[in-house]
Amino acid sequence: MIGAVYPGSFDPITYGHLDVIERAAQRLGHLVVLCTRNPSKQPLFDEAERRELIEASTDHLPSVQVDAFDGLLVDWCNAHGINVAVKGLRAVSDFEHELQMAQMNSHIGGVETLFMTTRPVYSFLSSSLVKEVARYGGDVSDLVPPPVAKRLAERFG
After folding, report:
1. Mean pLDDT lowest for which of 3-17, 35-49, 110-124, 129-143?
2. Which backbone phi and psi does 136 adopt, to 5 degrees?
3. What tens digit of pLDDT does each residue of 7-61 get?
4. Which of 2, 12, 65, 112 is deepest in the core (most CB within 10 A)?
5. Do the domain assignments include residue 144?
6. Residue 143 within a domain
7. What pTM value is reported for the model?
8. What CATH number is given to the structural domain containing 29?
9. Of 28, 38, 47, 40, whose CA–CA distance to 112 is shortest?
10. Cα separation of 48 and 92, whole Å?
């Protein structure tokens, strides 16, 4: 039985994401990491690449599955019999946006959201910053899992 879903664009997955995934899976049982499309962002990696990187980064977690979806989270949840979403929070600014989405998901689809704060060591970390550092040749090896660091190096040369 799948316990919860952790949705995000994961472009790319970072150690901050992985921290939330590991802690959520430990506490909630099965967890689906759902790779979604954010229409307001232009992704660096396509859906297949993002899924592959998530799978490679979570292969040590037997209770974690990876899926992808382009649409409303509540539609995916209702189709899969899941009514709990997990969202990671780094700062108060994350909470403001995530709270609105959580309330909407509850209202239109009965999906409740559990918020997990990131560990302080990851509170600054975002996929956007990782991509920017990698684009200019910076070392991201302590920010992302090894398969992601390798793929970023390949992408940006």
Report:
1. 35-49
2. -100, 15
3. 999 999 999 999 999 999 999 989 999 999 888 888 999 999 999 999 999 999 9
4. 12
5. no
6. no
7. 0.94
8. 3.40.50.620
9. 28
10. 32
Residue 68: inside a domain: yes
Active site residues per annotation: 17, 41, 90, 127
Amino acid at the residue 122: Y
Q: How many domains does the chain have?
A: 1
Per the structure, the complete domain to which residue 20 belongs is given by: 2-123
Pair type for strands 30-36 and 84-89: unpaired
DSSP H or E run through 56:
helix 47-58
Contacts of 73 (CB under 8 A, 6+ apart): 5, 7, 34, 36, 85, 105, 109, 111
Rounded Cα distance between 58 and 150, Å, is 16
Whole-angstrom CA distances from 8 to 26, 68, 86, 137, 153 are: 19, 10, 10, 25, 23
Q: How far apart are CA 137 and CA 117, in angstroms?
A: 30
